[in-house]
Amino acid sequence: MTxxxxxxxxxxxxxxxxxxxxxxxxxxxxxFSAGIAASAVLTLLVLVWTGSYLFRAVTGSxxxxxQRRDYRQAYDAYTDAELLKRFEALSPEEQARLLAxxxxxxxxxxxxxxxxxxxxxxx
Length: 123
What we know:
The chain is an all-alpha fold. The protein has two domains: 3-60, no CATH class; 65-104 and 111-122, no CATH class. Helices cover 82% and strands 0% of the residues. It has helices spanning 3-26, 31-59, 63-89, 92-102, 113-122.
């Protein structure tokens, strides 16, 4: 949020308070009662908004954080698929040599997607 947007948000909250005062005055509240009611509603709105922000921040469901999570999953899936495609394009001798160099040939496990997929293809 830029400084200009922050100022506009502040003016919007101020206008909302003034509009609330006039709305309560129009419905029959008098003077201070309309001001107190408008202030109470505005305070409740700000508290709910702040609470929802804190909840999203604590649970990690902020928009930016979710976008990063989604991007990382898509990136990992793409790179895994690309590496697997390149590995499968190698000759069996080159695959065996590469697996021997990386140490994956002796212990293909669930944490090693290329080694486990290569062993599944051999079976």
